[in-house]
Amino acid sequence: MAVIIDTITSDQRARHPEKAHRVDAPVMKKPEWIRVKAPVSKGYVETQRIVRDNGLHTVCEEASCPNIGECWEKKHATFMIMGDTCTRACAFCNVKTGLPAPLDTGEPARVAEATAKLGLAHVVVTSVDRDDLDDGGAAHFAATIRAIRAGCPNTTIEVLTPDFLRKDSAVDVVAAAKPDVFNHNLETVPSKYLTVRPGARYFASIRLLQRVKEIDPTLFTKSGIMVGLGEERNEVMQVMDDLRAAGVDFLTIGQYLQPTRKHHAVARFVPPEEFKAYETIAYAKGFLMVSASPLTRSSHHAGEDFARLRAARQLRAL
Fold first, then answer.
1. Which of 51, 247, 252, 264 could join 213 via S-S bond, C-beta 3.0 to 4.6 A?
2. Residue 18 lies in a domain
3. Of 3, 2, 1, which is closest to residue 258 (Cα–Cα)?
4. Which of these, 78, 81, 120, lies nearest to 100 by C-alpha position?
5. Could you tell me the residue range of the domain that residue 242 belongs to?
6. Within a 13 Å sphere around the CA of 143, how many CA atoms are in the beta-carbon half?
7. Which stretches of the chain are assigned E, i.e. beta strand?
8. Percentages helix, strand, coil for the chain, rounded to the nearest 5?
């Protein structure tokens, strides 16, 4: 995957904030710790075939995930339901924006079928934002969960949902379907929302995660942010505190990678030792599970992480 980075320094950004989204910046070489292998394995090709044969989309492809080669080689794919067109235009995201097509009522069954064909012990289901729908697509999420439960009763289910902004009771519908993990990403610190996630509201996302725990305290909740967008360390600490106040169990922190010149610029590459420090602090703040590294993504190693998450809860209960 080609990742295009600009070379404006942090000092220049402070003096000239209007240059933060330059689209004519030259390509900067990525550090060694962020490099990944190209996807060429037999497992990758087989996963791609199953996804195509079932007429499905994956966030792995649509969002240009750097881990697609590793995950698809193991037949791990994150299904993206409700189409490939998002109603929002977040500055970090490579999913296309526009007017989505009507919901495909046969999609939940096809997701369940693909889950079975891939032999997934743990499946992750996410979606585009569907602000055009009265419930934001909550009922479609619930239908997909039920279809997977029916077709793959031993598979654990993780959902990564939109914020359902101004969609009353939408989160209740998804939580009532009882996924094993309810994930909703904050993506960045509050001060960056206007430029990075302009269609969302930070405290609405915090409230959504809190509401899930109110509905069903047994559900695991999860959220994640990207770093390298110009955030300050103390802002990341505050996000951790806000998530813990909402009862969130699992935190992910990964490096932001700029998909194209049209997207938000990378302020800096955060070195691995800083991710390790964030992980240590997050555990000290009470998270059951933390994944923090340059290549961490919400669904990367999700199955292994779920097993560790469940074990951590059991250990804490002793």
1. 247
2. no
3. 3
4. 81
5. 35-317
6. 14
7. 57-58, 78-81, 85-86, 96-97, 122-127, 156-160, 181-183, 220-227, 250-255, 289-292
8. 40, 15, 45
Of residues 24 and 107, more confidence is placed in 107
User: Is the residue at 181 inside a domain?
Assistant: yes
Q: How many domains does the chain have?
A: 1
Structure confidence by residue, pLDDT tens digits, 62-76: 555 555 555 656 556
Q: Name the burial class of residue 24, with classes exposed (0-12), middle (13-18) and buried (19+) by CB atoms within 10 angstroms of its CB.
A: exposed
Cα-based distances in Å from 17 to 91, 189, 247, 255? 15, 17, 35, 21
Q: How confident is the model at residue 19 (pLDDT cuts 50, 70, 90)?
A: very low
Residue 158 bridge partners (DSSP): 124, 181
The three-state secondary structure class of 164 is: coil
Token output for 289:
């599970």
Higher pLDDT, 205 or 72: 205
pLDDT tens by residue, 235-279? 999 999 999 999 999 999 999 988 888 889 999 999 999 999 999
Q: Which two structure tokens, joined as six digits, stand for 159?
A: 């959902």
Q: How confident is the model at residue 148 (pLDDT cuts 50, 70, 90)?
A: very high
DSSP reduced 3-state for 257:
coil
Asked if residue 137 is part of any domain, the answer here is: yes
256 closest CA partner among 196, 178, 173: 196
What local confidence, expressed as pLDDT, does residue 25 receive?
43
Residue 97 pairs in a beta bridge with 86
On whether the CB atoms of residues 293 and 167 are closer than 8 A, the answer is: no
Q: What are phi and psi of 276, to 5 degrees?
A: -60, -40
On whether residue 146 sits in a domain, the answer given is: yes
Tens digits of residue pLDDT in 165-178: 999 999 999 999 99
- What's the predicted TM-score (pTM) here? 0.85
Question: CATH code at 121?
Answer: 3.20.20.70
